[in-house]
Amino acid sequence: MSNLPRVNIDQPKYDQNTYIGRAKHFFLVTNPLNVLASSAKLEEARQIVLKYRAGKDVPECKTIDDVWRAKYLYDSAFHPETGEKQIVFGRMSAQMPMNTVITGGMMAFYKSTGAVVFWQWFNQTYNAVVNYTNRSGTTPISQQQLVTSYCLATGGALATALSLNRAVKNMNPLVGRLVPLVAVAAANCINIPCMRMQELRNGVVLLDENNTEMGVSKKAAAVGISAVILSRIAMAIPGMTLTPMLMNNLEKRGFLAKYPRSNAPIQTLFCGFVLIFATPLGCAFFKQRAGIKVDSLESEVRDSIKKKRPELDTVWFNKGL
Questions:
Q1: pLDDT (average), residues 232-250
Q2: What pLDDT shows up at residue 1?
Q3: Separation of alpha carbons 84 and 104, rounded Å
Q4: Quick one: which of 71, 115, 123, 280 is 20 to 30 A from 25 by CA?
């Protein structure tokens, strides 16, 4: 351990006060190659992190960069608060490959009612897994809440997509291709708050600069959940707007008429390429460890914190992803 410098690996490697720093951080967190890591590799990374945190010798690491690689692999698979291993498909590193398939399917088969129903259902099923996996660790989700949010989000997405498909039937084809984006945005506005209703009801834990618990706030929960909704929509916009523009252009040029079977593969591959960048860049809009001014909290929470730490200006909480 004496050869390795001491750094706080519980803070991101890059400056989270700048968008560029957050983008670099999330490029590592959402790296799709991390999904391929074996259980043994993940356990090795976990042991490195635990030993380094405890100040013990880490013979597996020759440099501090090795420690950081282990930490980011650990972060890609374990919950930041509970330390539990996450469901594979719910990990942020699975976002790009999973959303490539889902977005490509929604974009390619948006005209058929049966296909719309299937892909919106599949998307909301996946979203439910992601939202459950990346919830705030201090507020467990009940089975009833899980089922309710899933049904509401799926119903909302289907109602939006099917009604808009009928409304734009006689409009420019490009408008019809954008319907899946509107449905996804509407579903996110339903799914995420429902899935994290316990946080809105009970609040999230507030921490000071030393990670000491200072209180619980419902307002902080609402701020965090709103940020997550915006991030998820931002992640979807590039793939679900650039892909329709590309396909509309190919359709006008007669390419799709000449090669009709290329429709789904082109859209899926293009979505995958866009999502490699859109996923981390969308996550980077807001800090995961979000800060909120003490003076802006609920009066009883603010007063309680002021009694404990009169000089404390800002507290932090995990907003989720």
A1: 86
A2: 42
A3: 31
A4: 123
